[in-house]
C-alpha cells in the first residue's frame, strides 16, 4: 500500500512539474551522475541560456519504473543500458541509444576511519569493520556490481550481515559520510567529486570482478509531445557527445572503451 501511494505521489509530482514548466525538459539520471551531469548542465546553459533543464536523480530501476508509469520524463540517463533497451522495445524512445560510459566501482571510506587497503577487498572481512554500505542491487546497477564483486572474491556470505543498503549509489555514499557505515562500495564518479575527495579516500576495484557497467542515455517519446521540448532535448542530447562534455565525464572517471584510463 505504501509503495502504491509513493508511486502515485511521484506521478502527481511529475505531472505538476510538467504543467508548471511547459517548455522545460525533465531529465531522469542515475544517481552516480549527480556531480557530473550538474557540471555538464551548467556548461551547456552558458551556451544555451534560454534552455530550461530540470534533472532528477535516483536509481536507474526507479527511473525506469516511473517512465513505465507515465512520468513525463524527456531524457533518461541509465547506469544500466538494459533498462533503456527495454524502453525501446516498448516504443517509448525517440532517439538512438547512446553509451556515455563504462562504469567503475571503488571502495570508499572517510579519511578519519584510517582504513588500510593493502589487503584489497579482503579488508571488508576485518572484524573492526562493522558496517559496509552498498546500493540496493534490486534496482541500482552499482549495487548489483558491488554484490557481484563480493561474490567474485567469495566474501559475500562472510560479510552479508554487515551490509547496509542505500536506495541509490548517492545515498550509499551518504551512509559512509554520516558514519552509518565504516566503508562502502560506490561509483568512481562520486569518489572523484571534489566534495567526497575532501572527506575520504578510495581504492579502485578490478573491472573483472563484476559484469561491465554499460551506461547509456536516450530521448524519450514524451519529449516529442511539445515542439519546444523536443528541440531542447535534442540539443542537450547532442551536447553530451561533444568534446567539452566528454572532458567533464572523463574528469569524473566516466570513460568509453576507446578512451585511455589513467587510473
What's the short version?
The chain has 263 residues and is of the alpha/beta class.
Structural topology:
Blueprint: H1 2-20, E1 24-30, H2 34-47, E2 52-58, H3 60-68, E3 75-78, H4 81-89, E4 98-103, E5 105-110, E6 132-135, H5 141-152, H6 156-159, E7 163-166, H7 169-177, E8 183-187, H8 188-191, H9 194-199, E9 200-204, E10 213-219, H10 227-239, H11 243-251
Parallel strand pairs: 1-2, 1-3, 6-7, 6-8
Antiparallel strand pairs: 3-10, 4-10, 5-8, 5-9
Can you tell me about this structure?
With 263 residues, this protein is an alpha/beta fold. It has two domains: 2-102 and 212-251, 3-Layer(aba) Sandwich (D-Maltodextrin-Binding Protein, domain 2), CATH 3.40.190.10; 103-209, Periplasmic binding protein-like II (D-Maltodextrin-Binding Protein, domain 2). It is 41% helix and 21% strand. It is built from eleven helices and ten strands. The strands form two sheets. Strands 2-1-3-10-4 form a five-stranded mixed β-sheet. Strand 1 (24-30), helix 2 and strand 2 (52-58) form a beta-alpha-beta unit. The longest helix has 19 residues, at 2-20. The radius of gyration is 19 Å and the shape is elongated.
Amino acid at each position: 500500500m505504501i509503495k502504491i501511494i509513493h508511486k502515485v505521489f511521484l506521478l502527481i509530482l511529475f505531472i505538476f512539474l510538467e504543467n508548471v514548466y511547459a517548455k522545460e525538459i525533465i531529465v531522469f539520471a542515475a544517481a552516480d551522475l549527480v556531480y557530473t551531469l550538474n557540471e555538464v548542465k551548467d556548461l551547456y546553459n552558458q551556451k544555451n541560456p534560454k534552455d530550461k533543464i530540470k534533472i532528477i536523480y535516483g536509481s536507474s530501476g526507479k527511473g525506469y519504473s516511473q517512465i513505465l508509469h507515465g512520468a513525463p520524463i524527456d531524457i533518461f540517463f541509465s547506469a544500466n543500458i538494459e533498462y533503456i533497451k527495454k524502453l525501446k522495445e516498448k516504443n517509448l524512445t525517440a532517439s538512438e541509444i547512446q553509451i556515455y560510459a563504462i562504469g567503475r566501482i571503488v571502495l570508499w571510506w572517510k579519511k578519519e576511519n584510517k582504513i588500510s587497503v593493502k589487503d584489497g577487498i579482503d579488508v571488508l572481512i576485518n572484524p573492526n569493520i562493522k558496517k559496509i554500505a552498498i546500493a540496493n542491487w534490486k534496482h541500482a546497477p552499482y549495487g548489483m556490481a558491488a554484490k557481484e564483486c563480493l561474490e567474485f572474491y567469495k566474501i559475500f556470505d562472510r560479510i552479508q550481515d554487515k551490509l547496509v543498503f542505500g536506495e541509490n549509489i548517492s545515498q550509499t555514499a551518504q551512509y559512509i559520510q554520516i558514519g552509518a557505515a565504516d566503508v562502502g562500495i560506490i561509483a568512481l564518479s562520486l569518489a572523484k567529486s571534489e566534495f567526497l575527495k575532501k572527506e575520504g579516500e578510495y581504492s579502485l576495484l578490478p573491472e573483472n570482478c563484476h559484469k561491465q557497467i554499460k551506461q547509456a542515455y536516450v530521448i524519450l517519446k514524451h519529449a516529442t509531445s511539445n515542439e519546444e521540448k523536443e528541440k531542447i532535448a535534442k540539443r542537450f542530447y547532442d551536447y553530451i557527445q561533444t568534446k567539452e562534455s566528454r572532458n567533464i565525464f572523463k574528469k569524473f572517471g566516466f570513460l568509453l572503451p576507446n578512451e585511455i584510463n589513467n587510473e
